[in-house]
Every structure is written in structure tokens, then in C-alpha cells.
Specification:
Distance between the termini: 16 Å
Number of domains: 1
Number of helices: 5
Largest sheet: none
Number of strands: 0
Length: 139
């Protein structure tokens, strides 16, 4: 179980590290911020897609382990199921977080930054600590 928790924590830490790396690269002007800022059509469609994805994945990731079928699979499959569903659950949060961080610097729109912050804060509600992992596979 400890190995499973460490793998899931590595996903969280690597996504946060990647986001921090992007922030450092853009803030030090190694990468050019605002490179896609002039295209209003792309900006609109990208913003709408990011908002819809963020609005959908946060409740889904928070609710996921409470669904009956997933809970039964977690109880019966223990560590293997926890790793599989844990990766899915964390990916629902960290992939849009990293994408919103990148999009913030590409378009320089605060909305993308706010969505990245919301997703970052949501990670704390599903962070794969050892106690949470044991509790998720318990009846």
C-alpha cells in the first residue's frame, strides 16, 4: 500500500513541479508570455473549453471514489484498483491544472490562472496520503 501511495504522490508532485517550472520559465522571460494573445477566436474557444473541463472534472474527481461500482472495485481489487483509479482521479485534476497554467501564460488571461488555482486547491481534497489510501480500500 505504501508503494501505491508513493506512486500517486509522485504524480501530484511532478505535476506541481511542472507547473512551477513553467511559471519560472515564463516569469523570467525565457519563454515569451502572451504569444497567442492576439487571436480572439482561439482565445474564446480555448477559454470555453477550459472552463467546461474545469467545471466538470472537479466534482467528478471529488465524487469518484464514492460511486458504488468504483467503491466495490476498490474493496475487491485493493492496491491494483487503487493505483488504477487513483491515477485516473489525479489525472482528472492535474492535467487540466498544468494545461491552464500553460494557457494562462500563452494568452495572459487571468481566468486560466484562476482555474489552475482552483484545480491546485482541489488536489488537497484527494491527496493520496497513506491514511487516505488505506481508507479508500476499506469497507
Amino acid at each position: 500500500m505504501k508503494k501505491c501511495a508513493r506512486k500517486l504522490q509522485a504524480i501530484v508532485y511532478s505535476a506541481i513541479g511542472l507547473s512551477l517550472l513553467m511559471i519560472i520559465l515564463f516569469e523570467t522571460d525565457i519563454l515569451a508570455p502572451g504569444s497567442c494573445g492576439g487571436n480572439l477566436t482561439a482565445e474564446f474557444y480555448t477559454l470555453m473549453a477550459a472552463e467546461l473541463i474545469t467545471i466538470c472534472v472537479v466534482p467528478l474527481a471529488l465524487w469518484m471514489f464514492r460511486a458504488k461500482t468504483i467503491k466495490q472495485k476498490l474493496i475487491s481489487g485493493k492496491e491494483h484498483s487503487l493505483l488504477r483509479f487513483g491515477i485516473l482521479r489525479l489525472s482528472l485534476l492535474v492535467v487540466p491544472m498544468v494545461a491552464n497554467t500553460l494557457l494562462y501564460y500563452m494568452f495572459m488571461l487571468p481566468s486560466f490562472g484562476y482555474m489552475a488555482i482552483i484545480l491546485f486547491l482541489s488536489i488537497f481534497f484527494v491527496f493520496p496520503s497513506m491514511e487516505r489510501c488505506v481508507g479508500d480500500v476499506a469497507e
